[in-house]
Amino acid sequence: MADAIVYDLLKQLASITTQQAKEEIKLIVGVDEEVQELKHKLRIIQVMLDNEEERQLKQHVENHWLAQLKDAYYEMDDVLDSWNTARIKLEIEKEEGKSADSTPLLL
Hints:
GO terms for molecular function: nucleotide binding. One of its GO terms (biological process) is defense response. This protein is mainly alpha-helical and 107 residues long. The chain has a domain at 1-21 and 32-51. 94% of the residues lie in helices and 0% in strands.
């Protein structure tokens, strides 16, 4: 009879141990799946960060190029303004020279 009680206790203990082992295995398997999912998400985030960094670098280069283009525009505009001013001065000087030649000197 004592053997039957010990046998039943061992059977129940084995059942409990087996159940706990199954639950731990489920946890381990679940953790592995979650870890894989997190790794996948991490790779996606890394790609997005790399793309954003590349976009910002490209934008920085474009902004620098636009600033240089703007400077060149202003320099060209200044050259044209100087040329127009010089041309107008020459025209005024010619007109003044003509009117001085045609105006008689009063003595």
